């Protein structure tokens, strides 16, 4: 049914109701209090997380932290043991209700493309569309979008690894799923092609309205492709936010290092002073995500371009200096020949043999209670 808006334009009532529903109902994919164990291994320990419609959310963490387990629960590959999953505001899975993968509006992409070897590229892409009248048009459109028009009649083994992975993404997106789940989709792709494939995948996914969850252990990949990143450690989400948020206010040293590089200084805190092997720093030089308890050991993270050196004849000795154009990488030795690498602004120029003290560059350094 068509209705007219105040500018005289026609709008379909069903579309309007859907748009209104979207504005008031939590959409996307939502995990609520998920726990999961394998025999004596506790893989997930209370995950609550939401990937919104149109968003790319990365699960980032070391091997074994539970990323794939969470993805497999959403896909229906694993049954939910505790907690619940909702899709588009309606229950998707719980302990009582576990529909199989084919009954979920979910597209899957794995590390190896897992294309059907006996089907052509076009048949692979169209597999989830069955007898839909629009099948051919959708397949042709996707072939064009992934840059493989003209290769539809080829078989998967005649394609390069990168082309196969493009086809896998197209196959997952063809039925217009509400959610796209990708488990290390670029891990087996040549490193030189990976960035290009990431960009293409982001463009493809962003042209649709599905929620996307992508698993990776590569921080650079997560920062480049994701709208938000959920950092996982030992079955829990340590922090979830944009790359910028994780970089600016990391909840832990692990998150801080996942969201960017930096030098780490171990310190002991004494009455507002942090003592390290490379100098003493005032409390005002440090910023804690959570207030520290007194006299506990802390780790200080010094990001590139966030430290300055100051000449001091009794200070630390510079043993090496490299110039990259954008920065100056300086190696400092403490009295026991322990060394620290700092990435500094290119000016002022430092030389091996200079004696210096380290200072903040105006902004406090993130610090974490150990
Ligand atoms: N089928 C299984 N049986 C027993 N333990 C398992 C099984 N699958 C996963 N685990 C364990 O559960 C934990 C989480 O595994 P999971 O595969 O989810 O982690 P991950 O972060 O995806 O790791 P990776 O990046 O290596 O794939 C690990 O300790 C793993 O050894």
UniProtKB/TrEMBL annotation:
PROSITE patterns: ABC_TRANSPORTER_1, ABC_TRANSPORTER_2. Pfam families: ABC_tran. It comes from Algimonas porphyrae. Residues 29-259 form the ABC transporter domain. Keywords: ATP-binding, Cell membrane, Ion transport, Iron, Iron transport, Membrane, Nucleotide-binding, Transport. This is ABC transporter. The keyword Iron applies. SMART domains: AAA. It comes from the Bacteria. SUPFAM superfamilies: P-loop containing nucleoside triphosphate hydrolases.
């Amino acid at each position: 049914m068509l209705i007219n808006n105040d500018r005289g334009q026609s709008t379909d009532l069903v579309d309007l109701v859907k748009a209104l529903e979207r504005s008031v109902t939590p959409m996307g994919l939502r995990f609520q209090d998920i726990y999961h164990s394998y025999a004596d291994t506790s893989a997930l320990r209370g995950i609550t997380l939401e990937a919104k419609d149109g968003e790319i959310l990365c699960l980032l963490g070391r091997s074994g932290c539970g990323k794939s387990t969470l993805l497999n629960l959403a896909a229906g590959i694993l049954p939910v043991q505790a907690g619940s999953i909702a899709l588009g505001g309606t229950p998707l899975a719980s302990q009582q209700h576990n529909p199989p993968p084919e009954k979920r509006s979910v597209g899957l992409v794995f590390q190896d493309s897992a294309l059907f070897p006996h089907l052509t590229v076009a048949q692979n892409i169209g597999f989830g569309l069955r007898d839909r009248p629009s099948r051919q048009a959708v397949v042709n459109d996707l072939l064009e979008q992934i840059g493989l028009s003209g290769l539809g009649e080829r078989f998967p083994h005649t394609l390069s690894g990168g082309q196969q992975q493009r086809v896998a993404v197209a196959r997952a997106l063809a039925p217009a799923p509400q959610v796209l789940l990708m488990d290390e989709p670029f891990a087996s792709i040549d490193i030189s092609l990976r960035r290009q494939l990431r960009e293409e995948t982001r463009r493809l996914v962003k042209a649709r309205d599905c929620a996307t969850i992508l698993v990776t252990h590569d921080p650079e990949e997560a920062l480049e492709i994701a709208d938000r990143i959920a950092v996982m450690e030992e079955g829990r989400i340590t922090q979830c936010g944009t790359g910028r948020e994780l970089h600016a206010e990391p909840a832990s040293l692990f998150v801080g290092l996942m969201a960017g590089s930096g030098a780490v200084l171990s310190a002991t805190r004494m009455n507002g002073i942090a003592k390290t092997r490379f100098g003493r720093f005032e409390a005002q030089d440090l910023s804690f995500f959570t207030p520290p308890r007194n006299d506990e050991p802390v780790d200080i993270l010094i990001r590139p371009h966030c430290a300055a050196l100051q000449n001091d004849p009794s200070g630390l000795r510079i043993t090496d200096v490299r110039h990259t154009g954008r920065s100056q990488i300086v190696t400092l030795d403490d009295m026991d020949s322990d060394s620290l690498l700092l990435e500094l602004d290119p000016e002022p120029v430092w030389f091996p043999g200079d004696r210096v003290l380290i200072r903040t560059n105006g902004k406090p350094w993130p610090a974490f209670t150990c």
